[in-house]
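I am still getting used to backbone structure tokens and would like to learn alongside you. Label the sequence line and the structure token line clearly, so we can match residues to local backbone shapes. Go ahead whenever you are ready, and we will take it from there:
>
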Amino acid sequence: MAMKRGSYRTGRERVERILDASHELFISTGYRATSLRDIAAASGISHPALLRHFASKGEILTALVARLEREHGEWLATAAADGGRPFSAAELARHNDATPGWIPLFTALLGEATSPEHPGHELMRRHLRAGTRLGVRQFGTRGGDERSVKLAVQRLGAAWDGLQILSLYFPGRIDIPGQLAAYEDDLRTNGLPPAPTAPTPEPARAVEADARSERPPRARAVEAAARLYARHGYHGTTMQAVAEEAALTKAALVHVAPTKRALLDLVVAELFTPAPNETDPGSRLQALLDRPRWQAAAEVVLMCEATVPSHPAHRHMARRLEYSLSSTARQLVASERLSEEEADTMAQWAVAVALGGLIAWLYEPDDVDLRTLIEGALPAGPRTGLASGAPTN
């Protein structure tokens, strides 16, 4: 019996060591870029020894997220029992910020797991739903109809997720607790903004052309790569898989882009670079809503995957976000007569809601009215000129 207890204790210690190493690697290099052999080496054990505890990387991810969720649940239970204080998003954000690795890991998984094929998809979906339920219980005490409460909670959640992404690209610049506290204070002072009487109707859309239709090889390769990025991320996509998705020979694909990195650069340049007419928040958000779902999903996955500075798309995504922040701030200074500091803070909020709202829509397309969610984040409201509808399927 003593040997069994010792063996169990050693096994549990090894599992925790594996999870600790996985946590660090998933943050530093990304989930998809990390191999089981990498984890074994970082854990100080052999690859076969690791497989005795976890049969796949997906099992490690599941166990790691479950551990983090358990720690989160314990903190929330303690906070709730402390004199019956109401839930505070700002307080929880400060706790997250003080938990080593929480924001980078959560953000990476949030984007990567938008694909239903990702092993963490259902875990993250449940996490988002639990957060919405918690928020509805708290915000429901402040009056307002059911739809207005839900919209306020969804906007809070979208901003929170978006602000976390921004904080990884711009360390030290984004005050997540401060932004959330300001939003909560506004709701306490002014009440919940009323939701539209009915969700925004989605217009009829044309059926998308198949990626393997008779189009130029370059266009087929770019779309095929983006579709695969949306499902498997950059690191999980091979040149052979892109060639097959695009119905091209490997030689034809190499003629378009000689390397995997060159293909990524081509996708980024053609699909994720602002168009010349995207000069104000309204036109950019309209472009966001008009894109097909696979394109929106690919950018979300790459943006969350590329929070790691070593990712080949990191610099581009940072420039993309900086452009959105600075141009939105300039527009707010001109139209709302705000100071540069006020405009920068409001621009962070608006961009965060747009980014987080898009992620929420990818997880719950039937439950998130993306246009209303984003439009209400801007002080100009209807003047943003957003088109109706969400990205097409």
